[in-house]
Structures are given as C-alpha cells and as structure tokens.
Design brief:
seven-stranded mixed β-sheet, two-stranded antiparallel sheet, globular
C-alpha cells in the first residue's frame, strides 16, 4: 500500500516542482482557501497557541496573524517541492546568505573550526540547508527523523541532499559526529521540537512553561564545538535570507541549561520579529510540567 500511494502521488509532486513560481503561488492561494477557510486544518491549535503566547494581543490581532500564518504555511508546503528540480542559481536567488553570515562562516572555515548550527521551524528551513551547502565551505550535516514510509523517506532524502547536504538519523547523531570530526563540518539541529516532559529542560518560551531538548547542549559540551544560531527571515513572498550569530564557544560551563536558554531565547527573538513565519500548527505545548 505504501508503494502504491507513493507511485500514484509522485507524478503530482514532480508536477508541482516544475511549476513557475507565479503559478505555484497562485495554486498556494487556492490551497489557502481550502485549508484555512473550508477545512480549518489545525486552526484551533494555531489560535490557542497564539492566544496563550501573546496574551496582550487583541482577538483581531490574533486572527490577523492566523491568516498570515496560513498563507505562509501554504507557500512553505509548495516551496518544499521546488527543491526536487530547482536550479542552483534560482535557489540562491530565492534564499540568500546575508553578507555578515557569509563572513562569519568563512572565518570559521578559515580557522578550520567545526560548528553546531541551531535553528527553528521558522521561515523556509528546508531552503536554508540548500543555501548553506551551496555557499559555505563546511560540509553540512542535518539531524532528521526518518519517515516510516520508506518510499517517501527516500524522496525527502533526495530532496534534502541534492545540493550536497548530508543527513544523520537522530538516533545516530553523536556516533556520526565522532566519525566525521576530522572533516570541516557543520551539524544542524532544529531545536524547537517537543521532548518527553520527564527528559526535558523546562524554561519560559513565548510566555509559556516549555519543555526543550537538552541534546544540542550536551553534544556541544562533549564535542567542544561553538554554536551558531541561524535565522531564516522572509523578505517577501518566495524570498528568504539567512542570518547567523555565534552564540557560544567552548570551554563550556557544566551548569545545565545555559546553552539551551541561549539558542531558545534567540529563536524567540526572531519569532517576535516575524511571528507568522513560525510553525504554529505544531502542538508545542502538549505537555505540562510535573512538580515533584
């Protein structure tokens, strides 16, 4: 059944990937109408997340952000498929590297410094990986969750590795990082996912008590790599730029949470600046802290 669904869907996916951008965004407008206006896909989740994250905002403001988010979300969905066929030149036209970020990564490469990159589900994080691999000397490795459907997992793998990015399954992260530590590398963690509450570090994020993965922090301490936060800012429809800040450098304190707090607060700053381009459909706060 998995194979049947995949091979029936594949021609449509490739058809989407070859559409000119104006046609693609016209189709996105249609998707927006059905997803937001008719189906209301996870609308309650989005509105609840926004209300609790921004209690100071009026209902009118919350609804406006919700509409803006769904327009971005539909664009993001279709933009992802463009990776299958987009040219290098077009990729860099639509997702550029900020000059200051380029200078930072070039200096780190010149110093032969391996790094950990931290980013969130904000902007077009898929295109961000492509742009980094095309522009920077570090070999980019991205931590990911393999899909249960092996056919679609293979498709996603091909999409994400077209421009030189390599993938590491989350369960193999530390082992694989040790294997390529002699190579000039950048390992990217998308660090705004939801861990099990009993294994999480808890902090205030977007006005809410939030569980955060400590994995990035623990690996940075073990590998003794500096951490660079990468932001993905939407410039206009279909165009993004990457920014970068070196957040922390070794030697690291053994105090739990200081690295995690730094990159999570940096992501929060970006979300406050461009609220509609974060993944608000995610059930980020499905767990509550148990006070012992």
């Amino acid at each position: 059944m998995q194979a049947l669904i995949y091979y029936l869907t594949l021609p449509f996916i490739y058809f989407l990937s070859i559409l000119p951008f104006p046609v693609l965004y016209g189709l996105s407008d249609i998707f927006y109408f059905f997803l937001y206006r008719l189906a209301g896909y996870r609308k309650k989740v989005v509105i609840d997340n926004l209300r609790k994250s921004f209690p100071e905002k009026s209902e009118q403001e919350i609804r406006a952000i919700t509409r803006q988010f769904y327009r971005y979300f539909c664009d993001l969905f279709l933009e992802t498929f463009k990776t299958l066929t987009i040219s290098k030149a077009s990729m860099l036209k639509h997702c550029s590297l900020d000059p200051a970020a380029a200078a930072l990564f070039e200096q780190l490469a010149a110093d032969n410094t391996n790094i950990i990159i931290v980013l969130g589900h904000k902007g077009n994080w898929e295109w961000a990986g492509n742009t980094f691999s095309l522009c920077c000397r570090h070999q980019l490795y991205v931590i990911y969750h393999p899909l249960s459907n092996k056919y679609f997992n293979g498709l996603i793998y091909r999409m994400r590795t077209r421009f030189g990015t390599r993938l590491i399954a989350m369960k193999d992260t530390f082992r694989d990082m040790l294997q390529h530590r002699k190579e000039l590398s950048a390992t990217a963690f998308i660090a705004d996912q939801t861990p099990s509450p009993d294994k999480a570090y808890w902090m205030t994020f977007l006005n809410r008590d939030t569980p955060v993965f400590l994995g990035t922090e623990k690996i940075a301490q073990k590998m003794k790599y500096p951490i660079v936060y990468v932001g993905v800012e939407k410039i206009k429809r279909g165009y993004y730029t990457l920014t970068a800040d070196q957040l922390t450098t070794p030697p690291y304190s053994t105090e739990e949470g200081h690295i995690t707090e730094a990159h999570t607060k940096r992501l929060e700053k970006d979300i406050l600046k461009q609220t509609e381009t974060w993944l608000w459909t995610h059930r980020r706060w499905k767990h509550t802290r148990t006070i012992v």
